[in-house]
């Protein structure tokens, strides 16, 4: 499918499942698990071909390859930097650092883990969205990046980030023209 003149069509594809997604852990740079690889390969006909970009993390490059995409690495599609919480589950962090976790979940400008705040992630993803020329792009990235793109597209406030759930291999379509975005659902 080609985009009409002046229109950008983005298909955001979340990477497949990993050991961290199964454990509900803050991810490191881990590979897909078997289910993630099989699911991405099965999804390939629905995603199609064309211009593609992906985050550099292994789970994204493996998903892009399983989808049959020749994707260019884009550093703006990187996952949120979870700092010292990387590799730990939400429950582990909550037990060890309950005040820090509450601050992070309650204040989008907070980064008690020493990584990236949600506000910083939203700004990075907004910049990425603003940099697209007309045409169709498939982007393989992370749940946090897709959440941020949805929040930006619908003009929601930063705390709405926590109200968007993105499962492994979820797809979100955004259509943009002149800096304005629309969120589309395609079954």
UniProtKB/TrEMBL annotation:
InterPro entries: His_Pase_superF_clade-1 (IPR013078), His_PPase_superfam (IPR029033)
N-terminal signal peptide: none
Superkingdom, taxonomy of origin: Bacteria
Coiled-coil residue windows: none
Entry protein name: Histidine phosphatase family protein
């Amino acid at each position: 499918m080609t985009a009409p003149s002046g229109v950008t069509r983005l298909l955001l594809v979340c990477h497949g499942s990993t050991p961290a997604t199964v454990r509900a852990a803050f991810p490191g740079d881990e590979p897909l698990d078997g289910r993630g690889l099989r699911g991405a390969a099965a999804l390939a006909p629905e995603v199609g071909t064309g211009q593609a970009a992906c985050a550099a993390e292994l789970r994204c490059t493996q998903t892009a390859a399983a989808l049959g995409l020749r994707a260019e690495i884009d550093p703006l599609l990187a996952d949120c930097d979870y700092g010292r919480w990387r590799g730990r589950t939400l429950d582990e962090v909550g037990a060890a650092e309950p005040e820090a976790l509450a601050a992070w979940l309650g204040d989008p400008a907070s980064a008690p883990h020493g990584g990236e705040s949600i506000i910083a992630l939203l700004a990075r993803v907004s910049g990425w969205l603003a940099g697209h020329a007309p045409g169709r792009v498939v982007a393989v990235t992370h749940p946090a990046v897709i959440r941020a793109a949805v929040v930006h597209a619908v003009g929601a406030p930063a705390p709405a980030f926590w109200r968007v759930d993105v499962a492994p291999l979820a797809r979100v379509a955004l259509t943009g023209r002149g800096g304005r975005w629309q969120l589309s659902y395609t079954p």
